[in-house]
Predict the structure of Transport permease protein.
Amino acid sequence: MKNNTKRKEMNPDFKFEIRHIMKAMYEITKIEFKLFLRLFPAVFFSFFFPSLMLLMFGGIYGNTPNNMFGGHGVVDVSFPAYTAMIIAVTGIMTLPLSVCGYREQKILKRYEATPISPWHVLASQIIINIIMTICGMILLFLVGKIVFNLHFLGALFPTIIALLLSIFSIFSIGILIASLSPNIKTAQIIANIVYFPMIFLTGATIPLEIFPKIMIKISKFIPLTYSVDLLKGVWLGGKLSDYTNDILILLIIMTISLLISIFTFRWE
């Protein structure tokens, strides 16, 4: 009875703490959203560049079934690949640079002297980049649907699972870059080294179906290849069980990246 009474007495404090955290997260995320929209490269490459790519290649090849792509149209195949490209933009080029910039300007350290934890800032960065990824994907979908009658042949639940796994796996690499980089210049160099092979050698922009065998073998060493393959597979009607290799590799990448980040991340 005493324990029950004590638990009841603690509930108001617990609820107050939850409300405090949620309010802090909301305010920080709102600020981060406004700051993100001021970053022209991030906005352009997250929102407009994938849609422009879809318009360009869709305009050239149309969306009629093609034997090279397993009987699917170029636009139907390109949509999940360009979704992976958006994930790479937000996860590799935006997330680590924002975190490193805050650390270099000692913004994370200053938050330690306020009721807001630096963890709230880091979490808000992840949340806002996930939101922007989904917004870019929605815009891409609308362009594909309105202009080329884009087809979704898969099921919603496996597609959401594949999308979230791809986001968290690629974002974990971004957090790892932020953890290992001593300053924002180093983070930019590492991010570019990681990002450009991801864009051009994984099927995210140029279909792997037209790659020579040697380039396909090289693509197997780049994490985004597995996101592209998984997203494309479930989008075109495949089951998650058909892509256990992709799922396993993405989970391993996420686990290793986060474990290293836990031990190497610095607030200042």
Observations:
- The two ends are 47 Å apart (CA to CA).
- The chain has a mean pLDDT of 87.
- The longest helix spans residues 2-37.
- Residues 53 and 205 are 8 Å apart (CA to CA).
